[in-house]
Batch of 3 targets.
Target 1
Amino acid sequence: MNIRSINEYPDLLTVAEAMEILRLGRRSVYQLIQDGTLAARKMAGKYRIPKRNLAKIIGAFDQGMCYNSTERTQMHSNE
């Protein structure tokens, strides 16, 4: 597999490019967009994601600020 640096991608990313960078499936990327975790805009009927927004997501994952709904439920039930 050829892994590219995030700097090699354009400033506006497609969903497919976001999938490559985040190493997530299409459904997961769309879920991040739908729940507002990943800011994106529709242009000509297709989502475009500013690269800086993806960098924010990566930083949030690194800091443990992003988690899926199952983990969120478990965390709140332990409180």
Note: Residues 8-77 form a domain with the Multidrug-efflux Transporter Regulator; Chain: A; Domain 2 fold (CATH 1.10.1660).
Target 2
Amino acid sequence: MPSRLVILFSAGLIFLLSSCATEHSEIVLAKYDNNKVTMGDFEKAYTKNVGSLEQAKKDSLTKLKNFLDLYVNFKMKLRDALVRNYENDPSLNAELQDYKGKVGVSYILERYLVNPAIKKLYERRKWEYRVSHIMFKADPRELKEKEALADAVLDSIKKGASFEDMVQRYSDDTYSKQNNGDIYFITAGQVPIEFENAVYETEPGQVFPKVVKTSFGLHIIKVTKKQSRVPEIRASHIVAAFRSPDGKVDTAAAKAKIDSVYEKLKTGEDFAELAKKYSDDPGSKEKGGDLGFFGRRTMVKPFDEAAFELNIGQISDIITTNFGFHIIKLIDKRPYPTFEEDKDNLKKIFQKQGYNIVHENFVDSLRNKYNYQVNDSTENYVLSKSDSVKLDENHPALEELKDLPLFSYAGKSVSVGEFLGKVSEKKNYYGKIINKFILDDAIRAVSEDYILEEAALGLEKTDPEFASLMDDYKNGIYIFKLQEDEIWDKIKTDSASLYQYYLDTKSEYNLPLRISFVEIYSTKDSLINYYYNLLQDGADFDSLAALKTERPGMKQKSGKYSLDSLGSNSLYQEAAKLENPGDYSKPFKNAGGYSILKLVEKDLPRTKTFEEARADVSGKYQESENKRLDQQYIERLKKRYEPVIYYSELEKAFQENK
């Protein structure tokens, strides 16, 4: 039996060995000068390059080695950029700041406004609520009175008055009033956001404790039911219509018909066959009554309510709607989509329904964060100098006003002149006659740009993902500058250099057999034979083609086809069979008609002249020089930094959690 000392020693040794083992992300794959490339750096860069971790794990060791070579070259170039002091280059920093501001604003709105909102919308749309309301139409002229009335009615309900009685006495919504205020089932994204927020904060059987104001009016909201939402169902139906094809209404006959069908279903007859035989819905009967998939509130309420209560395969009782008597069979239920599947749809719903309000609240939170303030005295002074003046950069009192501070944020001040220069970007206000209302809104609109850009410029400190994005862009700027200094500015594209490259690579610039020809075309064989006889009798081919060819688009060209290769179309192949310029073919049939062709020119396969090849030569020359100079640059970096690459360690790449 081992002693306690041996056991303790073994445990200590295991701990010592494990603590000395290099963490996977810290494995060194390469060294250059006093710098290193770690496994963590490499895996992150490779994953980004191939698009996903799953793909990275599948790739071969050869691909990983090739990328590591390129990545080490990339890192050495970035090191050289630091040596050249690019970090303190004013033009590069200005470009980076400009990009940071523009991209940062889009990033902020997407990450901190849109994404949270659509995720919230996604979670909300898993549920549907049955809702009733009392609505008060709110004309602006009597808004205060209606608000007082709505508050009084809500107070009465809180003290025990019947919600349904209050609906009948006070609601201005005549449609829902006849159903005691019931507006049926709703889900997120279907109603104004203020209404939706109140619904989702209220439990079934409860009344929201405040009067809610929307663009439709004032609302007292009651939730009567909450349940999991089925996005869409697929159902079939058989309908016995009240109205016959000749326009007569006979509900008794319809009832007798649907009762008869219902009895047949009870005995086990096929639903689809009965629909084809008896249903009065011409749009679905030939499909066995199949209505396809549809969502809540698509069908009339009694039909909708019955259909969504069924289980798959279940057949309903007889349902009465305004159209007739229905029997419904539920075929399928569409499951709730994943967030990624529904993401684009959620964005559309959010943009249409709630974006403006959420956006305004988000920007207001930033205004508070950055201590945004409008200089009231300056604004009033601008107004005093703006009688019948348009809001633009040509204000008649600009010299007097331009240096006055109009608003401030984050310790910075924006002058009237700066504001008037920026307001041209705000089409809702630019060029409007200045008044207090227009000026207030224009200041808010312009200041929003400054506020969002301020948030963007400070985002690197708080958002690692954005910081990484900016690092990538900064690296891209540096690499571009290095390429410019070391390669592009050194490439000589003078005619002498291009011509010498052409001579060295002349065999790469070849032209295939090319021909040009004229066609006489007709849709009738009798006419084409007539034209051929005229040619045989000495008629001029070109003149005859200009007058008689019928091919669409070729009449204005007198039937002439320009010099081109045989692969252009089948007519070129036919014309190529002719030996000498001036020879013409016998009539032959082709798609849609008949043709006679005359050969105009036959340019045999040959090497392009320098002028013909100049564009190709220039492109290939620059590509060749780019590779040559880049390789020379990399060789200089290798001599300077003496990189060492540990290819054997690559076998551990993407293996940590396999």
Note: The first helix runs from residue 4 to 20.
Target 3
Amino acid sequence: MAPAIGDGPFKMNHVYFNKSPTAAFGALVTAFLVLTLKDGHSKDQLEKAITALTSQIGSEHTVTWGPTKEDVNKFFLVIGWKSLKVKASCAILLQQKIANTLYRITKTL
């Protein structure tokens, strides 16, 4: 059976989340971002960027993130929103903040 998403073989990622992902996964709207650090950047820089990003998009969300077991430079960021309306109200700000903060230190979003 061919993969349903992507153009290569299926790859499993085991993520060491910084806190339980249950609330984010159980939210009405959930966003997943896969981030890979650029050369010369660190997990600490990414943590600061994620903290800055999530503190600026309001409190109507749950955030968890962490590195993968398979690649120490690959991270998953999961944001759970209480409603589509709340997520939509933050969408433009979120996109701008991601572009301005995370893109500088990661290869992919």
Note: The two ends are 27 Å apart (CA to CA).
